[in-house]
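Hi team,

Filling in the usual template for the complex we talked about on Friday. All components are listed, including any nucleic acid strands or ligand strings, so the model treats them as one assembly.

SUBMITTER: L.P.
PURPOSE: interface mapping
COMPONENTS: two
RESIDUES: 703
SEQUENCES:
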Amino acid sequence: MSRNANLWRTSTFRLAAAYLLVFVLSVGAILAYIYWNTAVLLERQTDETIRAEIRGLNEQYRFGSITALANVVEQRSVRNSERGIYSIFDQQGRRLAGNLQGVPSGVTGTSGWLEFPYEVFNGNSIKQHSGRAFFTRLRGGYLLVVGRDVEERRQFATLIRQSTFIAIGMALVFGLGGGLLMSRNFLRRIDVISDTSKAIMAGGLSERMPVRGTNDEIDRLSGNLNNMLDQIERLMTGMREVSDNVAHDLKTPLTRLKARVEAALRQDTKASYKEALVETIEEADQLLATFNALLSIARTEAGQTSEQMEPLDVSEVAEEMAELYQPLVEDAGGTFEFSGTPDLKVTASRQLLAQAISNLIDNALKYAPPQEGENRALEIALLVQRVKDKIEVTVADNGPGIPETEREHVLQRFVRLDTSRSQPGSGLGLSLVAGVARLHGGALVFRDGKVGFEACLELPAAA
Amino acid sequence: MTEQFLASKTFKLNGSMRILVIEDDQQAAGFLIKGLREEGHIVDHAADGEDGLALAREGVHDVMVVDRMLPKRDGLSVIEALRAEDVATPVLILSALGEVDDRVTGLRAGGDDYLAKPYAFSELVARIDVLARRNKPEAAQTKLVVGDLELDLLARTCTRAGQDIVLQAREFRLLEYLMKHAGQVVTRTMLLENVWDYHFDPQTNVIDVHISRLRSKIDKDFDGTLLQTVRGAGYSIREP
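RESULT (copied from the run log):
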């Protein structure tokens, strides 16, 4: 019932109702116009003809005799092609000439219009017809009646009137039905969206709005809602993973911190206190850095940094990062190589771009150095080049890289393949790079390089 | 000149400063005020934007620490109002938002430096020191001197004990920044911000390597270490 109540309130139904009204009115107007132009005009024409004949006959009588008039009336009444009614009666109502049997009922006064039923012999059958006639009293008390059989016209007018009502009725029924169907159809689709949202609110975040593929307004709305839900789901999943991992990754340093402080308390010497405090500060700084990294990712993913986007030369930023990191790589016993094509412009945030490159180099530094017993020296290369309409910032190393199956996984927050957690780090580096890439309309791609592993930040080239 | 750079052993600034803290969070403010008082400073506190503005208008403070989110009047509007009234007290903006654009809006509003929460107290102290020093009108320096280390900003040369030291461009800027703030603690973040103009936290301490390279050039073959590591805080250049 409530659905029906809703029906009257939907805009489609109201629109359909308004349209229906206009439609019915215009159908009515058209039919009225046709009726006017046919039935009414025909009737008028008939009347005019009858008047003209009356005038003619009257004149003949004035200049002739009643016998001459009776002759003309007789002639005309015989020539019955127009279904004319002609009759002349004397004072007593006896027929002198014409095709009426007797004086029609309703003759009063000297002249006037009358409509009367009369019988027509059509071959072997008798039919009841309507006649319309004008009567006038002539000098000497003779009664002249001239008229026409209007049966067909009457039937025609009735037909048109009936058609008008039927057409309006049909317009009402079809318009109403169509409007109801249309709005019910529309309502049903809205209801599906509404029901789906309820299911989602009840916790079924994987539910999606049905999309028909017709690309109409509702389809587009559903599509957009689905995109929004995808985004929300990704963020929610991310959040869930983060909270799981936060529990682990923040608990560990906090436990370590507590243990250290407790140890210092036990030792109870000034030196041990100082040592513990300094170490505590360092540990806390690490924790702060982790939180800051989390915040950065959150902000990047929320796309709140677009204000700072500016056209900049990627090679320039990359070269600065190369210069910043080269000593570190060299100290780690490796070589660092930078090559960039100058003047490759992207629209980007300088800070975020630099941080992304820095994270990639950091990662290479952490995971590419030779393991014990390996006979190679660490090599890291930073390369900036244009490939079609993309600018690629590639950090290549000669390390073991990330196994194919893990490449998707490492982009998530707090994921560290180094399960022993022997390397310092938060497991947030690559998540941030991926976030930065997404923010700039690009992507972070991992691939096997010529000698080792390549992490490539693809950015759309600025026009 | 040189004497001024002789900081005390505990890295306190020469002489105490009067600092205005505008922060509504009682706990954060309490911690900040206690810490700054322990550093030997006089601290005034306001818990909302209106009170803060009224105190700041007196113009008696060396440095202000202003939280961005404040009741009654937000931090940025306090700073804008002060700057409109020609109160030039250096301002360190504290913010829980802490991203690059916030930094830019904060600095555009008239702030002098920007620190995101959560921050390390040592970072805050280092920045306050630098801000307070900046407030002192300094003649355009063409030569920086710490002990026997000299940096000629015009000729772009560096000498220690009369001996020429060849520095790369970035090393020169690094040393210049350290020497401009001689006697003060300069954090790694401050170095990355001011020497490299980047505001992010690198995962590894890239700055340390640059410092150690610089140190090997200016300290290694000479008597007395000028460039010192302050554990848990950063670096400081000063006469031993």
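MY TAKE: The longest helix of chain A spans residues 11-63. Chain A touches chain B at residues 277-278, 281-282, 284-285, 288-289, 291-293, 295-296, 299, 304-305, 307-308, 320, 323-325, 327-328, 331, 349, 351-352, 354-355, 358-359, 362, 365-366, 424-426, 429 (CB under 8 Å).

Thanks, L.
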